[in-house]
Amino acid sequence: MMALSRADTSVLGRWWWTVDRWTLAALLSLVGFGYVMLLAASPGVAERIGASSRDMFILKQVFFLAAATAVMVSISVMPVKLVRRLALLGCIGALLMTMATLSVGVEIKGARRWLHLPGLTIQPSEFMKPCFAVVAAWLLAEGRNYGWRAYAAVGVLFFMIVGTLAKQPDMGMLMVVASVFFAQLFVVGINIFLVAGCGVVGVLGAVGAYFTMPHFRDRLNRFLDPASGDTYQVTVAMEAFGHGGLLGVGPGEGRLKAMLPDAHADFVYAVAGEEFGMMICLLILGVFGFIVLRGLLRLLGERDMFIILGATGLLTQFGLQAFINMASALHLIPTKGMTLPFISYGGSSVVAVALGAGMLLALTRRRISRAAQDEE
To answer: How many CB atoms lie within 10 A of CB 87?
Structure first.
């Protein structure tokens, strides 16, 4: 552990004694799980997709995990004002890049969500997600001073994001963004009838997506009636959980993971279930639950509405993304291509999650006095 005195007034010293070290440790443990699951799930995937070098395939994700850790810690050191500015710039930039995917994006499985850049492919909407949560918190908090103008600004931004995601289409990302925004609206205390009206619009949007988007309709139909279509991945994933049992078959000994096309990404939780068993799966679930509950408890004594809304949005987003991934693998909800934070393979996802986690740590740092907070 770091040997820093409470009297240390350096940036690092102040950070160490104000950051939530329990949450930081839990987040770093997820990064550790990510390394382990990378070694467990990626080799077979690398061979199946014909990666030129299996070791390079693994090292690439090792680099992204290391970069994510650096991003998370670096942002957690930032003062609140700088976090807010970073989120605003990030949200605008990511929204513009997400819009660009509609015309110059890479199409995969009927959706345009990715941009090709020199040396890598990124999914800009992943970065828009945490940045929007902080920007929405700022505008909603400012609504107390500027009234309808602040609410109108956040409403316009929200519908621009929703419209762009619907055109890609990326209904899973849209649902997460909308859920985070509605949670923030609830916390800020906006008229309950307005929130209910937004909920009705959301339900009507889902019904419209069912009738106009074949991909969305097919996934829901397969969930409700497995005999209506291909449920290969979910079936194999459930077999993997059953094969692993309580304690698993052992690291590297799983055989069903070789049959899962997305074993390293969307169904990495099934690989954990087969090789490490139900106990480790429950431990992973417990870590995610601890982070969310710890963060909410951290807000109990907070009076700054921006910090309350920002942290609530980031925690809702983090917990909902983890729930969707694990519930999909367990066939509790329709399958959705959403990564398990810090554990699934994917550069954009892991760095974007680290961005949100760093913002969360920065917002929930203890501040000795209001004057010290204003100074930040």
So the answer is: 24
Give pLDDT tens digits for 212-266. 777 777 777 777 777 666 677 888 888 989 988 888 888 878 888 777 777 777 8
The SS3 assignment for 169 reads: coil
Q: Is residue 278 part of a domain?
A: no
Write out the residue range of the structural domain in which residue 103 sits: 48-230+287-323+343-375
Structure tokens at 133: 């949560």
Residue 107 CB coordination number (10 Å): 11
Q: How many Cα atoms occupy the beta-carbon half-sphere of 348 within 13 Å?
A: 19
For residue 347, tell me if it sits in a domain: yes
- Identify which of 289, 282, 291, 292 has the alpha carbon closest to the alpha carbon of residue 180: 292
For the chain, the maximum distance between any two Cα atoms, rounded to a whole number of angstroms, is: 66
Q: Is the CB of residue 91 less than 8 Å from the CB of residue 131?
A: yes
254-306 confidence digits (pLDDT tens): 888 777 777 777 888 999 999 999 999 999 999 999 999 999 999 988 889 99
* pTM score of the predicted model: 0.89
Q: Confirm whether 41 is domain-assigned.
A: no
Q: Are 234 and 256 within 8 A, CB to CB?
A: no
Q: Give residue-wise pLDDT tens across range 311-338.
A: 999 999 999 999 999 999 998 888 777 8
**Mean per-residue pLDDT for 332-361?**
90
Is residue 298 one of the residues assigned to a domain? Answer: yes
The total domain count for the chain is 1
